[in-house]
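Q: Convert this sequence to structure tokens.
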Amino acid sequence: MTKAEIQHIRSLQDKRNRDEEGLFVAEGAKLVEEIASSALTIRRIYTTRTDLKGGNVEVVDTKTMERLSGLKSASDTLAVVEQPRYRLNLNTLTKSLVLALDGVQNPGNLGTIIRLADWFGVEDILCSKECADCFNPKVIQATMGAILRVRIHYVENLPHLLSKAHEEGMPIYGTLLDGDNIYGTTLTPTGIIVMGNEGRGLSQECRKAITHRLLIPAYPAERPTSESLNVAMATGITLSEFRRR
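A:
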């Protein structure tokens, strides 16, 4: 590989370059194999293995792979993949359970939430523009392949979209410390569940769009406990309760 080729792949660690190129990097043989069998387009696969075959596969040595990788410990396989583009159709969303993320900025949290959505059958996630980039390598790794099955939509004005969805008849759920106990609240099979930022929770603009305020109660109620739950953990509990009904 030339120095320019290596620099190009390394440049995809940066969001601006990923967006300009419409590409992202996926690392790990299992993940690359999943992508290869999906609808996504792989531009090039780089690997230290000799058993991988194909016109877009290039075998490299271990030192080169370490230079290409964005991980602390380089994997044996890396792929450059075209970013998928999805059309947001509000009419379609009204018939399903949807997640909305209001400023979730930690890549690990976002990746875990995408993985949870995949597990609980949520096919669409709406992200405010303040959210982490779903094609960040740390997010890709944390999704464990779920990024292939969950559609991520970045929206310019999330509160406006939530209000519009409510006008179309969708209930808008939000997790808040002053909400109603989720275990005693009527939940619907369709709607939008809004999860907030790791530090500040839901923004005031999104709070105004919430039609059903939910609380995941601590146990027992009178016991001193942590101030709040991690947003990914709270998402898992909330989705589990929705699906349990």
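The first helix runs from residue 3 to 11.
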